[in-house]
Amino acid sequence: MNIYEDQKMVTLYSLVGLGVVGWGTSPHIRCASLLLVPKMLGKEGRLFVLGYALAAIYEGPAANLRNNLNEVISSLGCTVQLQINNTRKAWRVSVGPLRAVLKDLLASKDSLKAETQNITKSFEDLDDQVNSETGYTLENSMGLEGTARGGEMYRAVPSRYHLSTQKMYELKTKLRCSCEGRQYM
């Protein structure tokens, strides 16, 4: 029973007191209580004791086991929820700087385009110089002769391979220079 210990003691003393008074005053109570002992040793008595034992087990260890299982389930649910929340926060913290950079880039899209165009315009002169054919033509590289220092004649070796822009610029610069001589051929 779910009652306080003090109330249990009062109830026990009251029942013992009633039993003492009944035994002292009534032969029927004495006879009924004496017949109760053989009844408890019979089939019905064993079933009563078994029911009482099962109820005690259900209220004791089984209830404790049930409560512990409920606490384990609550604990696991809480742990999983904390892991989800911590992972979400860690993701936001780790991706936050990248998001800020991308937002800044999107916000400064127009200025970035303008700067890119300025850079392109800055290199237009260099591109024109690299792509220029001044002082060098395909005919010069294929065998037409030119004079350099000392009256010697030089010509560029025709290229069978595709040259990079840097190599082409270097070759054109060497061919344009009429004062350096043979060391560039």
UniProtKB/TrEMBL annotation:
Taxonomic path: Eukaryota, Metazoa, Chordata, Craniata, Vertebrata
Protein name: Uncharacterized protein
InterPro entries from the UniProt entry: CSR-E3_Ligase_Protein
